[in-house]
Amino acid sequence: MDSPGTPSRASGSGRSSVIDSLRGCTLSGVRIPKEDLKKKITFPDYIRLAMREAIQAKDVDAAAVVQFFEAAHAEGAEPVEPPEFPLVVFINSKSGGRHGPELKARLQELMSEEQVFELSAVKPHEFIQYGLSCLEKFASLGDNCAKESRLKLRIVVAGGDGTVGWVLGCLGELNKQDRLPLPPTGIIPLGTGNDLSRSFGWGGSFPFNWKSAIKRTLDKITTGPIAHLDSWHVLISMPAGEELDIPYSLRTTEETPLDQDLETEGELPEKVSCYQGVFYNYFSIGMDAQVAYGFHNLRNEKPYLAQGPIANKLIYSGYSCKQGWFFTPCSSDPGLRSLKNILRIYAKKVNSSKWEQVPVPSSVRSVVALNLPSYGSGRNPWGNLKPDYLEKRGFVEAQADDGLLEVFGFKHGWHASMVMVELISAKHITQASAIRFELRGGEWTEAYMQMDGEPWKQPMNKEFSTFIEIKRVPHHSLMVRGD
Question: Strand 477-480 relative to strand 343-349: parallel, antiparallel, unpaired?
Answer without folding.
Answer: unpaired
